[in-house]
């Protein structure tokens, strides 16, 4: 089961082939291989990177269990 790296919620939805959305803290996650990027969704729909808050952290151990199809 995938958990949000920000709030640890399991309430994660898939919104694209490599994109996920956390309903617990309302952030968007993008996964490319072992690299994950975290974004805050602004009121106007734009994304602001939160990677500087997570810089240097590894991808969570239970994250690889998510099957991402091309």
Helix/strand structural class: mainly beta
Number of domains: 1
Number of helices: 1
How many whole angstroms does the radius of gyration measure?
11 Å
Number of strands: 5
Q: Please give the largest β-sheet.
A: 5 strands, antiparallel
Largest sheet, spatial ordering of strands: 1-2-3-4-5
Distance between the termini: 20 Å
Classify the helix fraction into a percent range: under 10%
Note down, in words, how this protein is organized.
With 70 residues, the protein is mostly beta strands. The chain has one domain. Helix content is 6%, strand content 33%. It has one helix and five strands; from the N terminus they run E-E-E-E-E-H. It has one helix at 51-54; strands at 12-14, 19-22, 27-32, 35-41, 47-49. It has a five-stranded antiparallel sheet with strand order 1-2-3-4-5. A hairpin with a 4-residue loop joins strand 1 (12-14) and strand 2. It is globular. Residues 59-70 have low confidence and may be disordered.
Task: Pick out its properties.
about 5% helix, disordered C terminus, 1 helix, mainly beta, single chain, globular, about 70 residues, 5-stranded antiparallel β-sheet, 5 strands
List the helices and strands and how they pair.
Elements: E1 12-14, E2 19-22, E3 27-32, E4 35-41, E5 47-49, H1 51-54
Antiparallel strand pairs: 1-2, 2-3, 3-4, 4-5
